[in-house]
Structures are given as structure tokens and as C-alpha cells.
Amino acid sequence: MKILFVCTGNTCRSPMAQVLLEKIAKDKGLNIEVKSAGIFALDGQKASANAIEVMKQEGIDLENHRARIIHRDLLEEADLILTMSKSHKEALLSKFDFVKGKVYTLKEYAYGKEEDIEDPFGGDIRDYRRAKEEIKEALKQLTTLINGQLTGDN
């Protein structure tokens, strides 16, 4: 299964979601390929310093992450596209109609609630920790759902 996380700049939320899900998938032996991109990303930009720091606290290295802007190929190859906010989802649906049926907010897919992951950009380390925890909790539910799909339990 190929999952794409999308946020605004691909420097905070979506890269944190990507590396957290990669770690969970590895630990659980799930066959998942994970990527991330941003709707308004500057290609090649590093992850924000606070995102790097909170991932380091999880034992995950985000130093080598480089932002990339969303493009058609990424969207086409993804089986599931998870956005960090309703506005990201709406932007993708308005520009790329073929994503209908495979794009959701992360919380919508995990919990059935179309809610946003708060953007920590410009905030302090506590804002990044809060965003990380929101993402981690949603990913726990997500991996339970995906595991069922991958093993045919659903």
C-alpha cells in the first residue's frame, strides 16, 4: 500500500507523519510505502528545526528530509492520500478530480471525523509536540485499519 501525506509546506506535519508511519510500519511488519509533499512547498527546503527536534525525541532522524511540492505523479501512484487539514483536501479535490475516493484528512480516515491537525509552523516546541502527539494517535488507529485491509480482515 502506498500512502501520501500532504500539508502546506512539507516541513512540519506531513514529514512527521511520514517518518512516524514508516517507523510504525517497520515495527509491525506492514508493507507500506510512505511519502509526503506540500501544496505550497519549496522543493528542497529542510524540515523545520522544531520538527527535527521532536522527531529526534522519538528516536527518528528527520535531518535529511527535503520538502517537495505536490504533483500529479505522486497523487496517481498513491493508494491513499491523507491531508493534515480540510483545506488541503479541498485544494487537492478542486485541482485533481481523479483523487476523489482516495483523499481524506488524516483524522477523517482514522476516526471518521473531518478535523484538522493543527499547524505548528511558527510556534514553539510545545506546539510541535502537540501536533506530533495528534499525528501519533491518529496513526495508531490508521495502522489498525490498514493492517485489517492488508490482511483481509475487513
UniProtKB/TrEMBL annotation:
Q: Please give the InterPro entries that the UniProt record associates with this protein.
A: LMW_PTPase, Ptyr_pPase, Ptyr_pPase_sf, Tyr_phospatase_low_mol_wt
What's the protein name? Answer: Protein-tyrosine phosphatase
Q: Which family does it belong to?
A: Belongs to the low molecular weight phosphotyrosine protein phosphatase family.
Q: Which GO terms describe its molecular function?
A: protein tyrosine phosphatase activity
Q: Give the residues annotated as active site.
A: 7, 13, 119
Please provide the record's keywords in A-Z order. Hydrolase, Protein phosphatase
- Please give the superkingdom of this protein's source: Bacteria
Concerning PANTHER family, the annotation shows: LOW MOLECULAR WEIGHT PROTEIN TYROSINE PHOSPHATASE (PTHR11717), LOW MOLECULAR WEIGHT PROTEIN-TYROSINE-PHOSPHATASE ETP-RELATED (PTHR11717:SF31)
Q: Which residues form the Phosphotyrosine protein phosphatase I domain?
A: 1-145
